[in-house]
């Protein structure tokens, strides 16, 4: 196998840039400044001691675990229109529809589950929903389980999630 | 006689006195319309198909205008767009905002036209919309939502002009106008579900298909109905969802002017269920699941022991190619081949339109391959009977029976059928040609690909004989 030599051009516009050494010096200066600071006062380090310490800066725009919202009478807001499942880029929303018998609307999901292992948390389902029935405002950022099935959230689980930012009911039908 | 007309600056040569809307539809020029339907003719009530015609003061409806020599038609001008938008806005004044729960969503003309000509600021408060009866069961698997109706009268014209059963009418005036049945009467005719396809909006939906799937998640594949030897053209609407098996959700009629026109009968439409239910999936002997090799060995040893005393019975719903393969197989093992067609006759089913009493889709194919169809003395007793899915093997007396079957037919099958049973693919899982009663040969492609496919008759014959014919 013949030796292959690649000639790398020297980048930079001025002589100072072309020398590289001043830039390396600048970088190391910042690195050692932080090292000195952190060694002298470890409480000022910008990291969380998770899980003992929990984040306090989750805003209402944060896309946490999904939830299915309720109407004013506490019944499910979802009408099983499949908009979320259609918009979902990872096809991880599974819905089965059934006629609704309580006089409100005609249709509701008999089965609604989200496979959170496949979900990419893009929020398209929330955007697509015409009924404000699915939201990602639970503030829940961590989900643990012992097997794959634990990560498939079913209808009851999704309905049990609470909104973390005050808006508990669906705002679709006032 | 043909004449020349000009549509949107393009010249067309058309038949004299043909309807303008037919010309536009035939040439794929976009023309929104609700009430016009080729099978029902012009009614002129929806006013959606307005076009401009040079020399005419006002826009004209294309469904009631006949082509004349030298006519100049415009379908895309700004004023026509404005006219269509205004008419659409009128149609939608009392239309509920039901799209999320409406089965028609995705194949709804109102949605399509709103995307083409709508996008206006609605002047109506949704709480002021007139309320009518929703999800009213009309009978015959049809559900009516009066609020969604655009009063195009396609459904009432179908029951008046085509089935002549007169169940539906439009009552009330103005905002109160609505489709309904006569008091205490139900929709009751064997073609009733066609009004679901005719309805351009979500007012009439199928009770059978209701909420089972959204239309945009379905794939429509052309096929032919196997309900009788009329051979009506259909679309099979099916899909295969993630982690699930292929499934058929509905049949819809497919236009074929030589056979069924725009329609199919309700029984044919609902026959998709038979392709899924009670299927024979297992290879059985003595009611135990056995492997393919053992089954073929057993069959071959049976054939050897009954030399020259074998009859093969074939189903008249199998495709020509399958029948031909079975016929040459019969020849190679020295067996008689037989398909008694009397088992398929159902005089209560037939009528003078689309329903035929011969309920075997390829009865003509059987005859064209000169397979015996009459029960004669030669065909009453046999040693070994090999039945390729014929519904009535007990027409013959036999010593032993080997069955190739698509369905578990009855309770006896489920419990104590000790015969050697080969599972067979149904029509949607196989492919081939059928000859209908008017001698029209039609090709059906393989539509359904199951996760674990059941072999077709052709595949079994190839496996058993071990050679390629």
Topology at a glance:
The complex is a heterodimer of chains A (174) and B (469).
Chain A: H1 15-19, H2 21-40, E1 67-68, H3 83-87, E2 93-99, E3 107-115, H4 124-128, E4 134-135, E5 152-153, H5 155-160
Antiparallel strand pairs in A: 1-4, 2-3, 3-5
Chain B: E1 2-7, E2 10-15, H1 20-26, E3 50-53, E4 60-61, E5 72-74, H2 78-92, H3 109-117, E6 136-139, E7 142-144, H4 154-162, E8 168-171, E9 178-181, H5 194-198, E10 204-206, E11 219-224, E12 233-240, E13 246-253, H6 266-270, E14 284-285, E15 288-289, H7 292-305, E16 310-314, H8 320-333, E17 336-338, H9 363-368, E18 381-388, E19 397-405, H10 411-416, E20 420-423, E21 432-435, E22 441-444, H11 457-465
Parallel strand pairs in B: 1-5, 16-17, 16-18, 18-19, 19-20
Antiparallel strand pairs in B: 1-2, 3-4, 3-5, 6-7, 7-10, 8-9, 11-12, 12-13, 14-15, 21-22
Low-confidence stretches of chain B: none
CATH topology (fold) name of the largest domain in chain A:
Alpha-Beta Plaits
Helix content of chain A: 10-25%
Shape by Cα distribution of chain B: elongated
N-to-C CA distance of chain B: 52 Å
Q: Report the helical percentage of chain B.
A: 10-25%
From the coordinates shown, what is the CATH architecture of the largest domain in chain B?
A: 3-Layer(aba) Sandwich
Number of helices of chain A: 5
Give the distance, in angstroms, between the N- and C-terminal Cα atoms of chain A. 75 Å
What class, by secondary structure content of chain A?
alpha+beta
> How many distinct beta strands of chain B?
22
Class by alpha and beta content of chain B: alpha/beta
Contiguous helical run count of chain B: 11
Strand order of the largest sheet of chain A: 2-3-5
Which overall shape of chain A is indicated by the principal axes computed on the Cα atoms? elongated
As a whole number of angstroms, the C-alpha radius of gyration of chain B is 27 Å
Number of strands of chain A: 5
